[in-house]
Amino acid sequence: MSASPAASLTEQLATLIEQKPISENDLRHAAFFVLDAVANAVAGQNSPAGKILRSWWHENQSGNTLVADVGTQAFLMGALTHILETDDLHRASVVHPGCVVVPAAWALARHKGTDGRAFLISVLKGFEATTRVGMAVGPAHYRIWHNTATCGGFGSAMAACELLGLSHAQTIDALGNAGSQAAGVWQFLETGAMTKHMHAGRAAEAGVRAAELAAVGFTGAPHILEGEKGFFKAACPDAQPELVVADPDQPWQLVQTSIKPWPSCRHTHPSIDAAGEIRAQLLAEGINPAEQIASVSLGTYQAALDVCTRPDPQTDYEAKFSLHHTAAAALLSDNVDFNAFGPQARANFNALRSNVSVALQEPYASAYPKSWGGSVSVTLKEGRTLTTTRTHAKGDPEAALSEEDLIEKAEMLFAHAAQDTSLSLPTGLTQEIISLVTSGKPLPDLKLGS
What we know:
The protein is mainly alpha-helical. 52% of the residues lie in helices and 6% in strands.
């Protein structure tokens, strides 16, 4: 099927996705992205925000009404997936697709008893929709709006449409109504509020609702993106609408998505990666970084400065959004893990953190968002300066984690969840999810909220 020249952007997007060929390798990639999202959701339960969500879930299950509600299950899983700041990130769209698309598809596939292969196809298509819309919103949108929240509903709706077997026309209705629910601003960063997790959950739920309603004839605006009173006009002053359907023969956007190795904002990862290399070099020379580093300078792009300029973070969450803290952590510790952001770690890294400066720098400023790079320059007390740069950070497709790395990360997240002995955790999830490519079985029960 080919879209007509006068077709709306959502119709053109649906057509592109419906016609795009899928390989076995694409499905295997999808399985590992699902593993990453599921591990994040399970581990997210062992967190302050996760415990609140679990309490809310229990308190509102009167008569098991929430258990039977696919949209609310998607909300819970989406919110949990985005808590620990270790979920995936698509650079060109600045969207975290896994925390929105996978929960919506998982909840609906579980409800319908869909097999693993069909589920993975829906995930591929959902990633494509949310990231393609995200690539078109323009950089000004991200300064106020959280792209995962505003663009996520398009992806969750597309995945749900695939699982529900909706027609082309119904899919356009669903995308229209998903877009009309687009919301989510960055104000929560001022206080480190838990709103960001709700953004992911709400975007997952919105797409499910839109698809469910489209299935029974509920219409949506076909020109929701480019219309005179549509999404781009309302919230995207420098939108690039043509990017929604540009380069249709590219690989699936899922395989161009990054997976995080460290539990902090992705904008901090180029400097973590580069700082870790400098630490290793200093240790190899017999130099103690804590004793001999005089100052640290970071070069980065504007979005990283906008979101992660926090010289003196007061909470774990603020530390995860601090270029200053994460660089200090990478220079002073062997592993930037969950322990690198707590009160003791913030105290331990304070002396060096106070000597970290950040600045806009080329070529990173112009290369963003296609490339998320940065530089780290460390000046030693002896006067020598060491500089390391990154065009791409570890976990980007150009510096991809191996399948073994991805399994190790998932097991680390499951182990984090297991520290909370009150949780009821499934077993054997890693291999079960990887085998979804060839599985004819329905998806396992994650026991979220239990």
